[in-house]
Amino acid sequence: MTKQSSIPRRQSHSPYIHQPKKPRLTTLAFEPPTPAPKPHYKKKKPRRRKPPTIDASRKWVFSTRDFSNYKDKFVFVSYNILGVENASKHRDLYYKVPRNFLDWNHRKKLICEELTSYNPSILSFQEVDQFDDLYKLLRKYGFRGVYQARTGEARDGCAIFWKDELFSLLHQENIEFKRFGLRDNVAQLCVLKMVQDQLNPNLNAQASKALPSRSLLVGNIHVLFNPNRGDIKLGQIRLFLEKVHKLSEEWGNIPALIGGDLNSMPQSALYQFLASAELDIQLHERRKICGQNCPLEFPSFQSQNRGAASFYTSVSRPSLHRWSDEELELATGTTGVTQLRHQLKLCSAYLGVPGSSQTRDGYGEPLATTYHSKFMGTVDYIWHTEELVPVRVLETLPTDVLRKMGGLPSKKLGSDHLALVCELAFADDSNRI
Q1: Is 401 strand, coil or helix?
Q2: Could you tell me the sign of the dihedral formed by the alpha carbons of 300, 302, 305, 310, in that order?
Q3: pTM score over 0.90
Q4: CA atoms within 13 A on the CB side of 401
Q5: 365 membership: H or E segment, kind and range
Q6: 240-288 tens-digit pLDDT
């Protein structure tokens, strides 16, 4: 018999005996309470500020004289329409102008719409390099026209149109200044005769024959731009006026009407030559004779009046300027001559009809007829002899309005120049009611 050991045995755990498990720590994911739905508000788009409205409308101003009984009246327009090539070559002048405003297809529609609103009889254009296009458009409105291109490499030129039912062309000739050593600019001269039957439809044939024959000479010129070549500018104007006077005499001393871009300011010596018919060249410096050196800001336009006054008073305190023999010959057409004269008695159409101080300088000319990034001022004019009188003129735009536009052309104006528009009558009009 085996003896049991007195040492107690270690009990082993039976796999069948339930052992309580230690509780496991469980991490619960925290779910925040669902927020209440926010009320739905539609986001409002920020309103675009409308650009300020610019009033680019132009107003007619009338002569103080009564022309109600004058029958032989007509509307004349002189307009530098900005050549397509010039617009593309000189983008620095139009960097503030949207590119589509420079597109010819856009501009030609604006130009035609503008012109037809004036009911014009005669049109005088400068910087024309799309004559065929322009002719087709104006032909629809009853106009005929003639064109003279510049010589040299430039493609633009001058054009004169007339309403076919109002005028007939009797004579035409052109001036190519290069033939006289005066660069590649050109000018045009046309003798036009009024169609009496259209102006007086109720008159019989015998009464119509008794009426005076109404013919006039229309001149169109675009003077050299270069401000430093006052000798050439003066030479072009001098030669042009000589041709106008000669042709007027050949056709029986008929009235003369001149439109153009003279690239000269109203306070300049060139303007004085046109207005007073004489000029002492030695009193003026060649580089400043055209007065084109004009600051852009508006105070300069106020100072133009003082500049004009100082210009005219400087004649009483002469200081002589030296011109070379070659410069004098270009300016006067003759060597050794310093006194220049022309035979026409010219009047400025805009000067003849008083206007607003917002658009005119102290002398009476427009403050600005052209505006781009480098220049604002007056270089365009309508001149006429004493046999014609201005009835009304279309005012230009105030300089503050032009400045708001940022430059020309614009959404509504098709050129960097403003059209000059004038209604004229014959001073000796005997056909009255």
Answers
A1: helix
A2: negative
A3: no
A4: 19
A5: none
A6: 999 999 999 999 999 999 999 999 999 999 999 999 999 999 999 999 9
